[in-house]
Write a structure and sequence with these properties.
alpha/beta, Dimethylsulfoxide Reductase, domain 2, Rossmann fold, Barwin-like endoglucanases, 3 domains, five-stranded parallel beta sheet, 30% helix, 18% strand, globular
Length: 526
């Protein structure tokens, strides 16, 4: 997030797009609700489903899945056409405005309505409301990124925020809500295929020499592969071994029939986890790791806040903290790692990671610090880009709308979108073992609109068969207007109805994220 969680509560307008916040980020959603109900903030929701946030919204734009760029371009068209953009901000702090203006010219509200289904007047109201606010916070999540145009969607969010001067101010910003605990921290530490810690590129000679010196090893200048690319390479026989840590790709990756076949081609599969997941059951070696309450260390949350975690109970059996397992394995493979504690690792992080340079265990003993925190005298950074962007001027990207990779046709006439529910987390590895969460949500359901249900002869509670070009599953139907006509929605928490048997592994060409949110399916009574 460019800004802080607490700022959401004290802003004037909140634009939430591609985020089912009450179910995926319930703590943050409480800030949104308080902002609306107690402080008079206006809420704009852009989502194809009638999520719970709609109850609090001033405006709800119900777009067709995968049309986000068109909708955002349409808002910018109105803002530029009516001259209500932040002219001084655009002139002094950005570049590329003329190219953006030229592209969005054709995205008139009428044209956008034909693409997205969003009514002309609603689009105009949303544009005026966002642009006219003194402070406006834009929130998004995986409903924006899990498309073949995910990078374009995020750039479009940045375009809109910069156009209205909402970046670099308190209560503003472009704020991605991270999907899992410590995703931000993992990315910060270089758990990406193309960067070292603090997003220092592996192709940079300067960065590579720095880390070679710090680690006493020769490092490759070639970026690695992303998750879906790894599975593809394994299927081709190019990758012979995979080490999976805290992930369950046999339930979470798209087209899991293909993923399972790829993993069965491997010479070696190692899984490091706290429970025996679907992926671990296929592994040659399982390394038992400690959970959050059984180890010391830090987590970095979605607002860039680095926080201490402390060991509260001993780990069971032979389970060890992840860093200990990695250190032991590395040592046995010929590269000694002799860290004495998690704190010692944190000291190394501060030495090689400029944004973490001022963060120490002593400083975060009671309260976390938000990076960038360049030295031990620095208080941390509540919001980014206050006076300038990291590249100097903010760059507008002129982006055209591109349809999803797979659209409905005669054989597969409906759209499937996937997501989470409040009571379960990711692939259910932990939450499905808890009695309370299973009582609240014991199974996966197929949300289907009443018009579609009537046409197909389907009633709530009836078993239906859902088929895509990649697979078939069966689950109970739930007839509801939450999902629009022509669209169904399923969560991906249940292996009994593994929705990723159906999803499309088509990738965003830049971010390499699969298109989980849109694929063509056929629904029929089982």
């Amino acid at each position: 997030m460019t800004n802080s969680i607490e700022e959401i509560e004290f802003t004037d307008v909140i634009l939430a797009t591609g985020t089912n916040t009450t179910e995926n980020h319930p703590v943050i959603s409480s800030r949104i609700k308080r902002a609306v109900r107690q402080r008079g903030a206006k809420l704009i929701v852009i989502d194809p489903r009638e999520i719970d946030l709609v109850k609090y919204a001033t405006l709800w734009l119900r777009q067709k899945p995968g049309t986000d760029v068109a909708v955002l371009n349409g808002m910018m068209n109105v803002i530029i056409e009516e001259g209500i953009y932040a002219k001084e901000y655009v002139e002094n702090r950005t570049e590329g405005f003329e190219a953006l203006k030229k592209v969005v010219e054709k995205y008139t509200p009428e044209y956008v309505e034909k693409i997205s289904g969003v009514p002309v007047e609603d689009l105009k109201k949303a544009a005026r409301l966002y642009a006219g606010a003194e402070k406006a916070s834009l929130l998004y999540a995986m409903g924006m990124t899990q498309h073949i145009t995910g990078t374009d969607n995020v750039k479009s969010c940045a375009n809109l925020a910069m156009l209205c001067g909402k970046v670099g101010i308190e209560g503003g910003g472009v704020n991605p809500l991270r999907g899992q605990n410590n995703v931000q921290g993992a990315c910060d530490m270089g758990a990406l295929p193309n960067v070292f810690p603090a997003y220092q590129s592996v192709i940079s000679d300067e960065a590579r020499v720095k880390f070679e010196k710090a680690w006493g090893a020769t490092l490759s200048a070639k970026p690695g592969k992303t998750v879906v690319e790894i599975a593809e390479a394994a299927h081709r026989g190019e990758i012979k071994a995979i080490y999976v840590m805290g992930e369950n790709p046999l339930l979470s990756d798209p087209d899991i029939t293909h993923v399972e076949a790829a993993f069965k081609h491997l010479d070696l599969l190692v899984v490091q986890d706290i429970f025996l997941t679907e992926t671990a059951r296929l592994a040659d070696v399982v390394l038992p790791s400690a959970c959050f309450a059984e180890k010391d260390g830090t987590f970095t949350n979605t607002e860039r806040r680095v926080q201490r975690i402390r060991k509260a109970v001993p780990a069971p059996g032979q389970a060890k903290a992840d860093w200990q397992i990695i250190s032991d394995l590395s040592t046995k493979m010929g590269y000694p790692m002799s860290y004495a504690s998690a704190e010692e690792i944190m000291k190394e992080i501060a030495l090689v990671t400029p944004s973490y340079a001022g963060i120490t265990y002593e400083r975060i003993e009671k309260e976390g610090l938000q990076w960038p925190c360049p030295n031990t005298g620095h208080p941390g950074t509540r919001f980014l880009h206050k006076d300038r962007f990291s590249r100097g001027r903010g760059l507008f990207h002129a982006i055209e709308y591109i349809p999803p990779a797979e659209l409905p046709d005669r054989d597969y006439p409906m759209i499937l979108s996937t997501g989470r529910v409040l009571y379960h987390y990711h692939t259910g590895t932990m939450t499905r073992l808890a009695k309370g969460t299973m009582e609240r949500c014991p199974e996966s359901l197929v949300e289907i609109h009443p018009l579609d249900a009537e046409r197909l002869g389907i009633q709530s509670g009836q078993i239906v068969k859902v088929t895509s070009r990649r697979g078939t599953l069966q689950a109970k139907a739930k007839v509801t207007t939450r999902s629009d006509a022509g669209m169904i929605f399923m969560n991906f928490h249940f292996h009994e109805a593994a929705v990723n048997l159906l999803t499309n592994p088509a990738l965003d060409p830049i971010g390499k994220i699969p298109e989980y949110k849109v694929c063509a399916v056929r629904v029929e009574a089982a």
